[in-house]
Structure formats: structure tokens, C-alpha cells
């Protein structure tokens, strides 16, 4: 059940973010220069910050909570190398973000909050608003818990930026280092240091099948001459669902025949579903019922890792390519009809 922030809670957040605007951290940092704030004994208890705006296009602060959030930052940072569409990488962020943008970027609800708080923004790039990014959901306004967390995170960033400017520590951001503020016990003391990024690649999951009956079915599947293309695409559209407190943005797991473009499977995933696992299940079901193709083509390491074991068991060539022409065509038809 979604709970909205009170006006007093929103006021504290807007006041804190307004102080950040005055600090102009984007004068010091590029968007890939990472600031970390460690609040516990474990390095995983770190909140990571990416400061937007040094290029002059869009001012903002993206906050990534823990290693899971930071992994989504790495997906975005490495999007081209991973051969992922920009919209997929953006909409699979796990982050809380504040932006200074244009009035038309804000929802009616966001403009109402600003009006009730008494702020009056004028001109382009001056309207302060906040968004929550979470895979499976469309970017949306913060709920109460997120408002409270974001307020605390931005207060920590104030302190961290003061330390960055005053400590004299030279951080080699270009060689995968970050600036970290580490809190002591009860947050009454803190120190600043340069530290390597916790990891420098995007961590993806592999799908492993342990069910012996399924493995036997895959091994015994007759070999066929056709090829398949497989991928996961994000709808990039808002879907309302009364069971959730925010609009959905489903992932679609797609499997097509590479010669004819025939759609074999096109499954919509809910927020609780793993779309890569859904894709793997679709491939398994097809192979057991229709036979093993000679080749499956994928466009990125994420889908490659999902289908690697399946292809190995069946003797299928798993080939990673830049483009999936038949799947792209099928997705275009789907998008024109439904999006």
C-alpha cells in the first residue's frame, strides 16, 4: 500500500535539494565521477552518487542504494559496450533522482507539490522535481519512505561535497576510483578517503537448470535446421495496475524464428518476474516440444548467459550478434500496434 509524503516531509526534501543547487557539485564532478557515503561497517552499506550537469544539459543528482543500485549504474555506464538499448538501460535503473528541468517535464502532481510549498520557478532548467526508478515500473514520483531517504541522502551529500572540496584528497576518477565519506559509530564522526570502485563491470545472472527430467528432455530433443533470435525488450510505456502503488513498465521476453520472423513466444513480465528466466523457460519449452534449432542468436551478454547452459546441453550454437533483424521487425510491429 503506497503512502504519500506529507507537505512537511516534502518541504525538508526541497530545502535540502535547494542547498545542493547552491553548492553546484557539477562544477567539480562529471556524471561518471562517483561519490560514496558508507554508513555501516560493511562496504556494502554504501550509497553511491552520480552528479549530472557538468556538460550543461541536465542538472541532477542520481542516488544508488547499495551494490544492487550501483550495479544498475554500471549497466547504464556500460550500455554501449553491453549492446543494450539506451531505453532499456535507463528504465532498468534502481535509483532515486532529483532533477532541475523544464516545467513540461513535471507531472501535475509534482507541480502541485511545488505550488503548495510556495516555490516559484521560472525558466528552463530550474524546476526541481524527483523521480524513483525501479525495474519493472515506470519512473514515478517518490512515496513517503523514498522522500525521507532522499532527504537523508542529500544531507549526506552536502557533507561529502564539503569534504571533497576541503580535504585536499586527489581522486583518480579516470582510473576507477571514487571519493568516499565513511561514518563512524552513531554517525558522530566521519572521514574521507579515495577508494577503488566496488566493481567495474555489470554483474549479470546466469540461468542454471538442475531438474534432471528437463535436462534429459533437452538432450533428447531432435536437431532441426532452423535458427532462433531471442531477447528481452522493455515496453517504455505506463500501464496502470491497481495492485501496485505506481505504474508498471513491463519487460517483454521474445523468441522469433530468424528466417521468417514468426513470433514463437512473446511474454509480458510482471514486476516480480525475472524476464531473463522467462525467456529461458520459453526456449526450453520450445525445444522440448519442437526440437533444437541449429543456432540461437542474441545481442548481449545478459541473454547469452541465460541461454548458455541450454545451448550447451542441446549442442546448439549460441551466437552473439549486434543486430537481431527479425526480432527487431517483430518488435516494431508490436510497438506500432500497442504502444
Q: Helical segment tally?
A: 10
Report the average pLDDT across residues: 96
Radius of gyration: 23 Å
Please estimate the helix content: 25-40%
* Strand ordering within the main sheet: 5-4-3-2-1-6-7
What structural class results from the helix and strand content? alpha+beta
What's the β-strand tally? 12
Q: Please write the string of helix (H) and strand (E) elements.
A: HEEEHHHEHEHEEHEEEHEHEH
Question: How many angstroms does the end-to-end distance come to?
Answer: 28 Å
The shape, in one word, is globular
Architecture overview:
Helix 8 runs parallel beside helix 9. A seven-stranded mixed sheet has the order 5-4-3-2-1-6-7. The chain has a five-stranded mixed sheet with strand order 10-9-8-11-12, with helices on both faces. The mean pLDDT is 96. It is an alpha+beta fold. It has helices at residues 7-23, 66-77, 79-82, 86-91, 108-117, 144-166, 212-220, 275-290, 301-314, 325-338; strands at residues 34-38, 46-52, 59-65, 95-101, 127-133, 177-183, 190-196, 227-234, 251-257, 263-268, 295-298, 317-320. It has two domains: 7-196, no CATH class; 212-338, Nucleotidyltransferase, domain 5 (2-Layer Sandwich), CATH 3.30.420.
SSE diagram, text form:
Elements lengths: L6 H17 L10 E5 L7 E7 L6 E7 H12 L1 H4 L3 H6 L3 E7 L6 H10 L9 E7 L10 H23 L10 E7 L6 E7 L15 H9 L6 E8 L16 E7 L5 E6 L6 H16 L4 E4 L2 H14 L2 E4 L4 H14 L1
Parallel strand pairs: 1-6, 8-11, 11-12
Antiparallel strand pairs: 1-2, 2-3, 3-4, 4-5, 6-7, 8-9, 9-10
